[in-house]
Amino acid sequence: MKRVLRRLGQLAAPTGTEDLMVVEYPRQRRLELSRTHSVIGAGVIVAVIAIIFLLQPAPPPPPAPVAAAETSTPEVVVSVVGEVHAPGLYTFAPGARVADALQAAGPVDPAHIRGLNQAEKLVDSSQIVVGGPSEPVPAADGRVRLNSATVAELEQLDGIGAKTAAAIVSYRDSHGGFGSLEELQKVKGIGPAKYQAIAQDLVL
Fold first, then answer.
1. Beta-sheet strand order (sheet of 127-130)
2. DSSP states along 31-48
3. Res 50: pLDDT
4. Lowest-confidence range among 63-67, 90-94, 107-111, 195-199?
């Protein structure tokens, strides 16, 4: 057995004349991009950025400006004449009283205001006479002034009784006057037919 192993060792020993085996390892290829590939890649990047931008939620729209007409405070304009230090037109906020107008105009003599109801709400376009009859000045053409007429004057209109006239005055006082003649139809007892019958005899 030893002889066999020795012989095999002799046969396997190098003699110095064998050809060396040349081993070629594969070279790693560098990734090269052509001009076309570069353009395509840039386009893909731009498209991705655009998609991300479009998918972002839009910012909430700015609040719409509030119309000036909605924010403006309605005014009540009255005329104060007679025995006062400063007669003229005065502007007040809705809900102002006759006492406010008297304080602004300054009565000459406190006795002149005894016949006035100082707690009464001011009605737009009405007139307060200090030291004289406080009845409203009638329209030049004889029509009844809706925003200043008394119950007695309203009763003179065709088809208007004491109850309806009182309802008109009550509505006028609680709403700061009528903004238009058509608003009269909101008063209980004034339907379209009755309004058409008296509209030509009215003025604000």
1. 88-92, 76-82, 127-130
2. P---HHHHHHHHHHHHHH
3. 76
4. 63-67
Q: Is 54:136 a contact under the CB 8 Å cutoff?
A: no
Q: Are 146 and 178 in contact (CB under 8 A)?
A: yes
Question: What gap in Å lies between CA 203 and CA 75, rounded to an integer?
Answer: 19
Question: Is the Cβ–Cβ distance between 185 and 163 less than 8 Å?
Answer: no
Q: What is the pTM of this model?
A: 0.40
> Roughly how many angstroms between the first and final C-alpha of the chain, as a whole number?
142
Please name each of the domains of the chain with its CATH number: 90-134 (no CATH), 138-204 (1.10.150.320)
Q: What is the DSSP letter of 190?
A: -
Please name the amino acid found at residue 17: T
Confidence of residue 90 (pLDDT cuts 50, 70, 90): very high
Q: What is the DSSP letter of 119?
A: T
Contact (CB, 8 A) for 91 and 139: no
